[in-house]
Design goal:
Length: 138
Amino acid sequence: MFINNLTVAKGAIVLSLSSNREEEEEIKKVLIEKGYKCAVTELGGKSSEFNEKIVSAVVGAALNNNVIEKNSTSMHALLHATIEAVKSLSLTLPLDVSLMMKIAVVADNTWIAVSMFGKSALHPLTNHERLGFGIMHL
């Protein structure tokens, strides 16, 4: 099964797609066995609030779970991967959409990847799924 062939990029995407804590823990176990470091967090709110909170949420999750060290090189890579993931969510819409995202960060000694998966809506009846992804060299 593909879960045994996870790269940093695939690991972040699959981890963000996990539907519950049990799946999340199962995927994290495989990633850790492969020598990857990983973290998961969730963030929701209007897109304007999301953009204000995303950096602290991702940095906090990565630091608290020892995915990165607190230095300029690691922080720079994490922030660029995060920006790339946010941009691919298409949050430059002129409207303030509601978002609920599961965010996964996976790294090895060379790469760090950020994946965001969840729902967005302009109205409660218009929910649809979105995926954002970014990767950066450490």
